[in-house]
């Protein structure tokens, strides 16, 4: 382990602050959504992906890729959402073996009802108090980290 590049004090403080912020922010957003709309943050994330799709339908592998979830997590979560009427599984016309996950009318109503409160909470907890320069820096840092993740740098290559 002599080759380990340990975090220096500044890096460690920044990393720990980021992890604490992420955990607390995620928990608060989840609680707000549950209280206001009965949706979990995971439900909301699935519904956003489907809402953004041109016809409200995506293949499961597309959802898995976009959400970065394990296949089993996605499958179980979609089953729970299907039972609640938020999504439906449909056969794919192009491929009889394939399936599509479709946004239902109930799912669309749920996200339309949940979005205003969620956006207001995101604004209040995350964006208020940040300057335009801080937002630009946040965007730049996020884009740089995402680019490394997209190239597989997280796997050492």
Return the average pLDDT rounded to an integer.
Answer: 93
Number of strands: 3
Q: How large is the share of residues in beta strands? A: 5-15%
CATH class: Mainly Alpha
- Order of the strands making up the biggest sheet: 1-3-2
Please report the distance between the alpha carbons of the first and last residues.
19 Å
* Radius of gyration from the alpha-carbon trace, in angstroms: 19 Å
Helix segment count? Answer: 6
CATH architecture: Orthogonal Bundle
Please give the largest β-sheet. 3 strands, antiparallel
Give me the secondary-structure category. Answer: mainly alpha
Name the helix and strand elements from N-terminus to C-terminus, one letter apiece: HHEHHEEHH
Can you say what the CATH homologous superfamily is? Winged helix-like DNA-binding domain superfamily/Winged helix DNA-binding domain
General form: globular
Low-confidence stretches: none
Helix content: 55-70%
Would you give the CATH topology? Arc Repressor Mutant, subunit A
